[in-house]
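agent> Task received from the user: take the single chain below, predict its 3D structure, and emit structure tokens. No templates, no multimer pairing.
agent> Plan: (1) validate residues, (2) run structure prediction, (3) serialize to tokens, (4) report one or two observations.
agent> Step 1 OK, no nonstandard residues flagged.
tool_call: predict_structure(input=
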Amino acid sequence: WGLLDPTREVLDLGCGIGRIAERVAPLVAGVWGMDISAAMIAAAQRRCRALSNVRFSVSGGIDLPMCPDACVDLVLAIDTFPYVLEAGEGTAAALFREVRRVLRAGGDFVLVNYSYRGDAAADRGDVARLARAADLDVLVTGEAAFTLWDGVAYRLARRGEARAARAGSRPRS
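)
tool_result: status=success, residues=173
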């Protein structure tokens, strides 16, 4: 989708052991990985120790108080929300609002796998409702965007501030 470039700052929510941060870091200005697990953060720090543009923080999983307003260009939540939903839909709604708060003008939010419940229509409906409430536009809704992975992708943006989508572009597998 053309969302990675050397000027963009990325927030990787639920970064786990840093696999995504490690792959994205060479393509962007910086990556800030957050996870609720201190053990995961320690593993991510070890994995990415040679990357000067990557940092990690333990987060509470509900909000992002350590993030200033409008501090990142792209928020990634890859296989994060199924676990957020375990804490309740109110937690998911709060996190959508926090994502909106930390995104800069023109910022994007990429969510892969909203849930693991196996109901794509319900997921699309929930993401659309949460996006409206958080003042986010849904640009891609539940697309099977990958050739080598069954992840279901959503692309959201700050309302009215979406970057021009590149026609025909698809995420790399």
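agent> Step 4: summary for the user.
The beta strands are 9-13, 30-35, 54-58, 72-78, 103-112, 136-144, 152-158.
agent> Done.
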